[in-house]
Amino acid sequence: MRFLDVMLLVLAIIGISIILLSVWIVVSIHAEDMENILFKFNLLTFFVGLSYLMFVLVILILVKEK
């Protein structure tokens, strides 16, 4: 049961990351000035880092349970 919960969490994180990525792509297409694009790139890097951190946390939880 616990493993299933963890897998659902991973799927949710992946889904949120894909949504954020698509939103970022749409916004960056409409962005004109360079500072705006740079800010959005930093934001994307932050979200990707956050997703990676969550993924590592989930793996650590899985390893700890076994």
Task: Give an overview in words.
The protein is mainly alpha-helical and 66 residues long. It has one domain. Helix content is 92%, strand content 0%. The protein contains two helices and no strands. The longest helix is centred in the C-terminal third of the chain and has 32 residues. 0% of the residues are buried. The model has no long low-confidence stretch (mean pLDDT 75).
* Helical residue percent band: over 70%
Q: Give me the count of strands.
A: 0
Q: How many angstroms separate the termini?
A: 14 Å
Question: What is the radius of gyration?
Answer: 15 Å
Count of discrete domains: 1
| Average of pLDDT | 75
Q: Structural class of the secondary elements?
A: mainly alpha
- Number of helical runs? 2
Poorly predicted runs? none
Could you describe the largest sheet, including whether it forms a barrel?
Answer: none
Helix and strand pattern: HH
Strand content: under 5%
- Anisotropy-based shape: elongated
Question: TL;DR of this structure?
Answer:
The protein has helices spanning 2-30, 34-65.
Topology:
Elements: H1 2-30, H2 34-65
Task: Write a concise keyword list for the protein shown above.
66 residues, mainly alpha, 0% strand, elongated
